[in-house]
Specification:
Strand order of the largest sheet: 1-2-3-4-5-6-7-8-10-13-14-15-16-17-18-19
Strand content: 35-45%
Distance between the termini: 45 Å
CATH superfamily: Carbohydrate-selective porin OprB
Structural class: mainly beta
Order of helices and strands: HHEEHEHEEHEEHEEEEHEEEEEHEEE
CATH topology: Porin
CATH class: Mainly Beta
Oligomer: single chain
Shape: globular
Largest sheet: 16 strands, antiparallel, barrel
Number of strands: 19
Length: 493
Amino acid sequence: MPTIARGVSMMIVAAMAMASIALDAQDAAPVQTIPPVATAAAEPGAEQGDASPAQSPSGDRTAAQQRSPLATQAAPPVQPSRPVLQGTVGQTVPAAHIFGDWNGLLPKLQEKGITPLAMYYGQGAANLNEGTSKKVRWAGEFALGATVNLQKLTGSIPGTFRVLFTKRHGQLIGTENGLGVLQSNQDVFGFGNIWRLTQGWYQIAGKTLDLKIGRMSPGEDFDAGRCDFQNLAFCGALIGHLQPDVFQNYPVSQWGVRVKAKPSKDVYVAVGTYNLTDDNRNPHEFDFGFGNSTGVSTMAEIGYTPKLNGVLPGVYKIGMLYSTVNGSDLLLNTQGQRRAAAGGAPLVRHDRVGFWADMRQQILMPNADGSHGLAVTARFAYAPQHVTNLESKAGVMLNYTGVIPGRPDDDLGIGFGRARLNKYLTRSQELANRASAGSVPVRSSEYEIELYYGLQPIPGLVVKPNFQFIVHPAGDPKRKAIGILGLTLVSYL
């Protein structure tokens, strides 16, 4: 009954929103197609996971959609992309498909309102030191899908439908080479090497209201982040890395409803609720039921999208989530005693919360050819609980385009990140060492640095060699820093 009630309540919310949007859309301007944007990603961490090819920006990765005036723009084509500021740095967007216009098929489909996607996203990594092996590891993802402009296709049905299937493969260097790091060095790895229905949703937008309902990831619309970098520290919805059981990141999808309102030109408010089940996260290829539900996560986000000096676009947002999913206390048993000393079953925590704050601001507007643009991004997520291994994540990133004369579309990026272990976990390690000196390492924060250069050697292909430097791996200040060479390929077929 609880799962049925959740499903019914979600449908009621959706019906009310649709009715409101239908009235709101009567005077809306004709829908326009948003051009494809940004590079994609796949976020992961076997347990952190979140890498998504399709998300929407500040109104979001959907992690695939770009923020846009709700009255005049529809959901963008299903492109593995992150919230991107139109015409700004760090986009590295292929100018075309590797196989051109598919012998004339692509423009014919687009004329009918169908924008297909056939894409491969892969990442290689090799550790220069440390670990139990020095083998090069590769992980990747195939993505097949389409975005359908129903109004254009049918002439009468409003809204947009998106479907996306993904298939991952490969190995994670941190696990296979025994690096012992907190953040995945290949954000495309995670949640099983299987086929998944990653997106299957319907969206309708009016002048001030926008509704999305179906199978999706909350990271498409909440705490959405770009994946310009290869390390998971800088990719996707950070809050999902802290609480993967209550915020199930890409490529995992779940039933959900998201309503977004735009009370003014530069402000949006989004609210969403999602049904959680372990069947979504575990390697079950296609499981769409409400059975085995572990609870519901509800979240809200407020965003501000100004243009500094009327020219430089920016996105500023804060959000929070509340979840009914239970979690096991890291330290205490059911009697409130420390399990390390007294043993016993873990104490069950019932209510979960999380918070995030993100910003991305264009600092220098690129020239007409796209060169010499500079943008800065800062992100933070916090989960104040006794049940999460990671307590917080933070990062600052800079992206600059057209570093080399004559190559305006290339971009250079550098990112600095920190992943903080739960302070209660650190405290337990300190207490263990009091009882037996040196028995366990006392761990706190891991620091990640990444430098990449992105270029497009041929139309439809993005290549990004990168170098990652991990300080205090796994949060252990006594361990040596690790250097990793990486390579990201994004290809639109």
